[in-house]
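forwarding from the other thread:

> can someone predict this with NAP?

sure thing
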Amino acid sequence: MEYKLESMYGLQDEVAVITGGSGSIGAEAGLALASLGAKVVLLGRNEEKLGRIQEEYKRSGVTIAIGTVNILDKDSVQAAMRNVADTYGRIDILINAAGASHLEDAVDFSEEKWDLIMGVNVKGVFLCCQAAGKYFLEQKKGRIVNISSVRGLQGRARDMAYAPSKGAVNQLTKSLAIEWAPHNICVNAIAPTFTVTDINREDLKNKTYHDWVISRIPKKRICELRYLVGPIAFLCSPCMEFVTGQIIYVDGAWSAA
Ligand SMILES: NC(=O)c1ccc[n+]([C@@H]2O[C@H](COP(=O)([O-])OP(=O)(O)OC[C@H]3O[C@@H](n4cnc5c(N)ncnc54)[C@H](OP(=O)(O)O)[C@@H]3O)[C@@H](O)[C@H]2O)c1
């Protein structure tokens, strides 16, 4: 057996679709995967935001494509995946990095917020897996990486929809992994701890909250985007063929403590 870096970890010409492509984690994952050779399509609702990311990457020599999707809408999801498959002839990788969050006391937590967060974080992720899965099953090859959270494991006060939604993402990851394992499709998730992005930037400006977060992370610092993209790319790589149905905690040992 001969082991070569490129054949184990390279993503040359793999076609990768990333939802939440206009968000911090999705955009950074796109940069990493494109740098490893993948043809990357960043999907989001806001074309202007996506265009700015595309331009920024272009200036640093990285080419990515962009497309619009509302992951709450099945037709929109199917159309977005079809566009990618029609353009590139296939889809090899799906990164589900779209997400929404809201904290509020349980008794005040609105039904509207519940539906939105469960919709984006659970139904939306499922619809994307389902739409990409159709191509993966035809190709007999595919990789999905869902972005879960330490919240999928641990609850917290005022976290009435986000934590349950991430628990659901973990179980969805496992169920899909089992169903699609015979078809050479790997379904895994990474579960990050706090990483400063638009989803929590305002909350983390609160010193008490910020200090509490640090106190919970044995590494004693907030996670950075670069710590997340390594595990994402790793789970997409050819040598990870037998790793499926796993939730990888990228949390500075938070969940171990
Ligand atoms: N940051 C953290 O500390 C952290 C920790 C653990 C897990 N995560 C998870 O990581 C993922 C990415 O979060 P992030 O931190 O990168 O947040 P972010 O920068 O706010 O990105 C969220 C993304 O979700 C997209 N989105 C929301 N609703 C959508 C919809 N209906 N259809 C399509 N796209 C939609 C947003 O698109 P628009 O631009 O159109 O709004 C945006 O691209 C989420 O699942 C989050 O739960 C984050």
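The mean pLDDT is 97. thats all i got for now
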